[in-house]
TrEMBL record:
EC number: 4.2.2.29
Site entry (Important for catalytic activity), positions: 222
Coiled coil: none
Bilayer-crossing regions: none
Gene that encodes the chain: mltG
Organism the protein comes from: Fusibacter bizertensis
Protein name per Swiss-Prot or TrEMBL: Endolytic murein transglycosylase
NCBIfam families, sorted: endolytic transglycosylase MltG
Class of enzymatic activity (EC top level): lyase
Signal peptide per UniProt: 1-21
């Protein structure tokens, strides 16, 4: 009789526990399945499952603190929730919230900025400073003096402030990224674009990486229509091959720090190593940040005999290309 009574008591006890668990489980559904608005909740360092549950219940992200604790034990993660900031919503179940906290899926504030193709370093600095991303002097110091371990920078004169190597793209970085981290991410992106194939192709052309990027920067600033990039490249390659001056307006605009539509005779007579109207060959450094198309075109020019090009009168950025000065003059006459 005594054994029967004990057995009956055990059954009743288990039934009570099971019933409590079932009651608590109903509190683990979302507070409001329709409310997806996120709010930030910070798990303090050293917080316990109990304290976290109470805090979440107080701000109405969960229905019941005891159910929260019971669920954590059922999931065998009691005491494993990580400190940090989390974005949570009332549409999340208790299990979803616990999983997020245990995985340490913390909220990281991010910032985004875009550098257009053809931007010069001065423009990049202006844009980043205006957006509050950098301290100008710190950034310029990083460009000139901080060492970065990338093969393409071998032999690059750092006094040119990495002109041409801050790859133009849209970047998403953790808020508060340092000047070093910003520059490094842009160089890392360049490294992703400039593949082993490109290094080999540069060797085939008997060009250094710096020469390729310098030429690509001129192409970037001269070409406007996608299909014309390799053709513009061919003009400059052809001129270099015969020792003819590039006569690129973009190089003079780099000197002027102004994108003038029409250059004067005084402009093209400026005494500067960047003036390709009075100096043969490439400029001492890139004149802007070339995009991938310009870089590829510098390495793989179209097969042409063109030596000249002039903007068409159509104002769509396209050009007339010609092999002779006589033909070029005719093109220039009809384009105006």
């Amino acid at each position: 009789m005594k054994k029967l009574a004990l057995l009956l008591l055990l059954v009743l006890t288990l039934s009570h526990v099971s019933g409590c668990a079932g009651v608590l489980e109903k509190y683990n559904s979302p507070v409001d399945p329709e409310d997806t608005a996120t709010v930030m909740y910070t798990v303090p360092s050293g917080a316990t499952t109990t304290s976290i549950g109470k805090a979440l219940a107080e701000i109405e992200l969960i229905q019941n603190a005891n159910a929260f604790k019971a669920k954590a034990k059922q999931m065998e993660v009691d005491g494993q929730m990580k400190a940090g900031d989390y974005m949570l919503s009332k549409s999340m179940s208790t299990e979803e919230i616990i999983t997020k906290l245990v995985n340490g899926d913390i909220y990281v504030e991010i910032e985004t900025f875009t550098i257009p193709e053809g931007y010069e370093v001065r423009q990049i600095v202006d844009k980043l400073e205006a957006g509050g991303f950098i301290d100008r002097e710190k950034f310029l110091d990083v460009l000139q003096n901080t060492e970065f371990d990338y093969a393409f920078l071998e032999g690059v004169d750092r006094s040119y402030l990495l002109e041409g190597y801050l790859f133009p793209d849209t970047y998403t970085l953790k808020a508060g990224a340092t000047e070093v981290q910003i520059v490094d991410r842009m160089l890392e992106r360049f490294d992703e674009i400039f593949t082993d194939e490109y290094y080999e192709r540069a060797k085939e052309l008997d060009m250094t990486v710096d020469q390729v990027i310098t030429l690509a920067s001129v192409i970037e600033r001269e070409a406007r229509v996608e299909e014309e990039f390799p053709i513009v490249s061919s003009v400059f390659h052809n001129r270099i091959d015969i020792g003819m001056m590039l006569q690129s307006c973009a190089t003079v605009q780099f000197i002027l720090k102004e994108r003038k539509d029409v250059l004067s005779f005084d402009d093209i007579a400026i005494d500067s190593p960047y003036n390709t109207y009075i100096n043969a060959g490439l400029t001492p450094s890139p004149i802007a940040s070339p995009g991938e198309l310009a870089i590829h075109s510098a390495l793989y020019p179209a097969d042409t005999n063109y030596l000249y090009f002039v903007t068409k009168e159509t104002n769509d950025g396209s050009h007339y290309f010609n092999e002779t000065l006589e033909g070029h003059n005719r093109d220039a006459a009809r384009s105006h």
